[in-house]
Amino acid sequence: MVVPVKQPMAVTKRTITWCPGCGNFSILSAFIDAVNDLGLEPWRVVVISGIGCSGKITNYMPFNGAHVIHGRVIPFAMGIKLVNPELVVAGFSGDGDAYAIGIEHLPHAIRRNIDVKLIVHNNKVFGLTTGQVSPTSDKGMITRTTPWGNVEEPINPIAMAISLGASFVARGFSGDIGHLKYLFKEALKHKGFSLIDVLQPCVTYDRVHTYQWYRERIYRLEDVGHDPTNFNEALKKSYEWGDSIPIGLFYRVRKPTFEEMLPTTSEGPPLVMRPISNRTIRDLLVKNHELTLD
Question: For the whole model, what pTM was predicted?
Fold first, then answer.
């Protein structure tokens, strides 16, 4: 049973070192507000971050957390969830961290449908290392490493996640903090893997995709009656980009999670609560000793 916390949680006393105007501030505030609104106890929430400007976010959140190596947010978060499924686990990655060096982990988290929330700070550049091209940089975009213009097509994370079978796929905008909090709350309530890609202007290294640029193009899916249970319509909406850019909940479906299907996590107390003094790895691998290991 969820017991509401007595006092609303706020950021920690650590000095925030993001650039003034950075969308990370909105993501930080919206996530803490979402946890507060849902009444989740802080000890139940675990946040994991990778390398990049977004990686600093674990320092500012009043929850258990870890700042891990580049591209490894998902496997670290998965390990925590499997050891203790009672925890609420959320990962925070940049577009480079999630869609470049760490992209090999995304399809497997999706197909397993492990109950982890992945929030991607998508600013279309490698902001921490001074604005190099990233997997989501638009074709023709001028960056520190593409002064002639980016020649590559960008990744479409929304279409990719939907087509791979993700059970929750959403896109937010750091310039709309109220809507962003709504998406975070829906993701936290969802049982299964959740991807929330957040469009976040880099105010220092991207002078094209500004807050104004996005506001002239963005519209909410909730305002046009989009049905998030309709797979084909969700996939169609995921390819809209340019003069109109949809944000909101693209797709949501309930299906068994990885933890619900594994005997080691679905039966008995969480692994972290089980005595280990008289247990072997064989005991954990063999369900009820009905199988034999050769």
Answer: 0.88
